[in-house]
Design brief:
elongated, five-stranded parallel sheet, Rossmann fold
Length: 294
């Protein structure tokens, strides 16, 4: 599916329950129009991964996700050979029924996310999630993929993409990425949304949530972000908390229910301990006052 304008893409993403700001919608549109990867950076929980999922939905494309981590290597990210099957082939070759020259054919490859995305005949959105958690060596390996959309396998040669996947990289900025990688991608920073947009997101993602509850939940989380916390909550935590409050049948917040459900918002013991008693009461009152009315 193609989009003739940023407005068309933005509206399609909204229908997929994702509310991008104009800057993000523009970055995604240009990524599709120019066939260039886009690097989305921002704090955890602001909607980077969800952007890729929503884009796959509106494109009618398959989402292929590579979750990065320290020590990620080619065997887990690109391909590896199916050694048990190759051993069976060797035994068959020894018996004279097969040739050993066929041992490194495509049928013996186990395709991991990168190769699967390059080799696919169907539309694909390739999500390279949390690239900042991978080693610099793997980041360097990605340069060939992101520059030419091709992968070189020594035994088979260079495999060029049959159709270029849409590529989204995400980073929580736990380390600085190399300039060479950044030059190959468009860039967009996703920050925390305005309170009005966050309320809109909550209402969209939590069907049936009372308007007042959505507003107070978003306002309370906004108050939390102003504190010196080890892990300030993102939009994902606001949504989770609103779901929890809605499941409890709440129509608005108070100190007691906030205390009981704080684990839906804060994920570190130190942060939970920092939001107690007078601090909790003050934040609840501030949120109830700041929450837009309807």
């Amino acid at each position: 599916m193609e989009f003739g304008s940023i407005d068309e893409l933005e509206e399609a993403l909204r229908r997929a329950d994702y509310l991008p700001d104009r800057g993000l919608a523009t970055a995604l549109y240009l990524s599709l129009a120019l066939s260039k990867p886009v690097l989305l950076e921002g704090e955890a929980g602001v909607g980077k991964t969800e952007a890729a999922k929503a884009l796959a939905t509106v494109l009618g494309a398959r989402l292929i996700r590579l979750q990065c981590y320290e020590g990620l290597d080619v065997a887990h990210a690109v391909y590896e050979w199916n050694y048990p099957r190759q051993l069976l082939h060797i035994r068959a070759a020894q018996e004279g029924t097969l040739r050993e020259e066929e041992l490194f054919g495509p049928e013996y490859l186990i395709r991991r996310p990168l190769l699967e995305a390059i080799w696919s005949d169907e539309p694909v959105v390739l999500l390279i999630d949390e690239i900042d958690r991978a080693d610099e060596e793997f980041e360097a390996f990605l340069l060939e993929v992101l520059s030419d959309f091709q992968i070189t396998i020594p035994e088979l040669g260079t495999i060029v993409a049959k159709r270029r996947p849409a590529v989204i990289l995400t980073s929580n900025r736990t380390r600085e990425l190399h300039d060479a990688l950044k030059r190959r991608a468009l860039f967009h920073w996703i920050g925390h949304p305005s309170i009005e947009r966050e309320i809109e997101i909550v209402r969209l993602r939590v069907p049936g949530v009372p308007e007042r509850l959505a507003a107070e939940a978003a306002a309370f989380v906004r108050e939390l972000r102003a504190l010196d916390l080890a892990k300030p909550p993102g939009v994902a935590e606001t949504i989770d908390w609103a779901m929890a409050l809605n499941a409890l049948g709440r129509k608005e917040i108070d100190a007691e229910v906030v205390q009981q459900t704080l684990g839906s918002v804060l994920k570190y013991r130190e942060d939970v301990d920092a939001v107690r008693d007078e601090t909790l009461s003050r934040l609840v009152e501030a949120a109830r006052t700041a929450a837009p009315a309807g």
